[in-house]
Specification:
InterPro entries: DUF1841. By secondary structure, this protein is mainly alpha-helical. Helices cover about 70% and strands about 0% of the residues. It has eight helices and no strands. The longest helix is centred in the C-terminal third of the chain and has 22 residues. The relative contact order is 0.09.
């Protein structure tokens, strides 16, 4: 499993944005990331200003969402969907998309479940539960 550092994640997103702005070819993963970035225009200023935002700290107390965490979670979800892992996630996300009448709203609901399950696993010192993740999605 690949566990990039905070700086590596940020550099990945800055690099994808820079390559896209320059019209350079992207890898399949970079193309997936760019599609997510384009759906989030509120982050374009951040992505275009490496100097200012490379080391910025976002905290819940500031009331700001960390754009790199948000984009990373979107990317994780898209990768899960591309391979239907955990098995059944694709069906649940399609169901949510219909229910919410929005693919983006569905993915944000998935993000809430993903964040909760990661937090639970870390808090309890246990492995991530695919079953609990899918159950959360079923209830969403």
């Amino acid at each position: 499993m690949f566990s990039p550092t905070r700086d590596q994640v940020r550099e990945f997103f800055f690099g994808v944005w820079q390559k896209s702005q320059a019209g350079q070819a992207l890898t399949p993963l970079e193309s997936m990331a760019l599609a997510i970035m384009l759906e989030h225009p509120e982050y374009h200023e951040v992505l275009g200003d490496r100097e200012r935002y490379a080391n910025k700290e976002w905290t819940p107390e500031q009331g700001e969402s960390n754009p790199f965490l948000h984009l990373s979670m979107h990317l994780a979800i898209e990768e899960q969907l591309s391979i239907d892992h955990p098995p059944g996630i694709r069906v649940e996300v399609e169901r949510l998309s219909r229910k919410l009448d929005s693919a983006m709203a569905a993915r944000h609901a998935v993000m809430e479940c993903l964040a909760e399950q990661v937090w639970q696993a870390q808090r309890n010192g246990v492995a991530f539960s695919n079953e609990a993740y899918l159950e959360c999605l079923r209830k969403a």
